[in-house]
Model the fold of this input.
Amino acid sequence: MLVIKNLHAEISGKKILKGLSLEVKPGEIHAIMGPNGSGKSTLSAVLTGNENFTVTEGEIYYEGKDLFQLNFEERAKAGIFLSFQYPVEIPGVSMINFMKTAVNEQRKSKNLPPMSSGEFLKYMREMKDLVELKSDLANRSVNVGFSGGEKKRNEIFQMAMLKPKLAILDETDSGLDIDALRVVANGVNKLKTPENASIVITHYQRLLDFIVPDFVHVLYDGKIVKSAGKELALELEEKGYNWIQKELEV
Amino acid sequence: MDVQKTYKKYIDIFEKFKDELKDSESEKFFKNRENAFEIFKKHGIPEHNHENYKYAGINGILDKDYDFSIESRAAKVNLNEFFKCEVEDLDTHVVLLSNGEYYQDNEPIEGLNKGVVICGLKQAKTEYPEIVEKYYNKYSSEIEDGFVALNTMFAQDGVFIYVPDNIELNKTIQLVNLTHGFGNKNIFKRNLFVLGKNSKLSLVICDHTLNSSNNFVVDLTESYVGENSQLDYHSLQNEPNKSGVVNSHFINLEKYSRCNSFVISLHGGVLRNNVFAKLAGENSEANLYGLNLTDRDQRVDNFTLIDHLVPNCLSNELYKGILDEQAKGAFSGRIIVRPDAQKTEAYQTNRSLCLTPQAKMRTKPQLEIYADDVKCSHGATVGQLDENALMYLRQRGIDEREAKLMLMFAFANDVLLKVNILPLRERIAGLIDSRLRGEFSYCAHCLLNCESRN
Ligand SMILES: Nc1ncnc2c1ncn2[C@@H]1O[C@H](COP(=O)(O)OP(=O)(O)O)[C@@H](O)[C@H]1O
Ligand SMILES: [Mg+2]
Done:
């Protein structure tokens, strides 16, 4: 589904990704862990096509095609979804209008007719229940006045609405208490199918108790320096990132 | 542009037609014209050097040859036939104007509340002289402004509405001013609205030019809102690219009265909107809202003056604008709090979005506060679309163009939310949406098949 080969990327002349390679197959969940500033959010920005970052070297294939041929919103329409580390507040744009536009744009790109208001509201209600989103949030402006936890839950709600093929969750767990974490993880698990895949970026192994990854990768200074099964997360939790650093120096 | 030449032209026109005007009405009304002529001679046409017109950019439209006439230019065809309001759920009484004149063949309004008068101003001068004399040119004569004076010198007709005490109009009155016919016309229109005590009037005013004539319109409206009465005034402007409009609205508010004024500039060449609100009675309230959507070489200049004369009054101002391409805009908001006007609350906000580096917005608050126990605030911002918000919407698969439209619409929305009549709010929302989409924005039938994008 996704093949990244030797990816180098920079922003304002600063090199951040320095030869990152990764392969994700349908049905898999990959966890990417790593210290602050190692380039995790940069990877998600490059995958989604954020124009502020420049790719200087490397290749990315998505569903067998060169990802760089698709612009930002084309990638979204092709099923790449990012749960933002910092969801943006948009005063004056209601969640309903936002989701209705997004869902119908996606349908348009698949040559499907737009959903009727009735159908849409029913669908929205189902997805809201799936991620246990408080119902009044849907009537408010996007993320405005939402608590940190509500914002993250709202990201998962949008994921449920849009049913991406490849979901990238950038520190969706940070700032969540244990109950909210469980809700978010439940949502992700319920949305999992054999056809879609997730990249779960996290700082802590806590989330991985709920979303069980097939692979855990450690991103360090712009490169994946270690990959293993889910047991790696526990090891990291125990020994800290210094352990990786020491291991690298050896 | 030689403003001096234009000034001279209007002096000559007045000298030429003054006898004719004098013969057409009573001495009392004609006196207003002569007084205005003196003001005009003294002040001339306000230019860049005039404090209130610094950024208006009106000079550019003055140098065309406009056809002036004191003869009627109203339509000879039946306008009723091709005007039908199709705003769903918005049940209005429609009143047509033709080239600024009250259309004589307006269909009679059925079911209008007893005692309410709606007719042409010219007709009102002879049929209701006591009311008209009492209010006509009262507030407007206090302001020495060349354009206000020009209107008083030349305007002969427009709409007169009188709502007696204790009447809440059952329907919104929709004034549809159609400008039509060939040639570039100079049009002077004058409205007078008088509300007694405990009354309520809601107005929608659609000004629209039916062809691409480049007219120069000098409009003036006076509204007198009696004790404990409410006026809801919604003006929708949709004019061709090369047209010029200077529009002044004088609102006098008695105690416990309220005016909600909306000036929605959807399209135009050069638009100048003056709103003068005088809080003359205690506990009165003036809410002035404005929204302008401009692109190309359009200019919209809003000037407001809120005069707090007495204690315990409230004024709110919210003006917003979206400027695209080379559009220019200005907002000057003057608030005067007189020494007696203790416990005044006056709030002013002006926010603009400039979508290109060429679009320019100037904003100038002017607070003159002579009382000490007051709450006043003002704020102005000029910004661009929020890049992060744009990215967020696009990440969900919404095309950049659509995402921008959503953000622009959201920006305009807070002005829209102040419109209390829901079907009207929805209708205006639809107009704003199609305007922002670059579609031709016609207001059902009051803005007929127009060529205003030409
Ligand atoms: N917009 C930016 N401009 C300049 N430097 C940036 C920008 N965004 C991120 N960086 C830098 O890139 C590095 C990696 O950041 P990021 O990908 O956000 O790390 P992580 O998500 O792993 O914490 C950091 O050193 C950060 O300061
Ligand atoms: Mg990050």
User: Anything to note?
Assistant: Chain A touches chain B through 27 residues (CB under 8 Å). Residues A 40-41, 85, 170-171 surround magnesium ion (ligand 2) (CB under 6 Å). Residues 2-249 of chain A form a domain with the Rossmann fold fold (CATH 3.40.50.300).
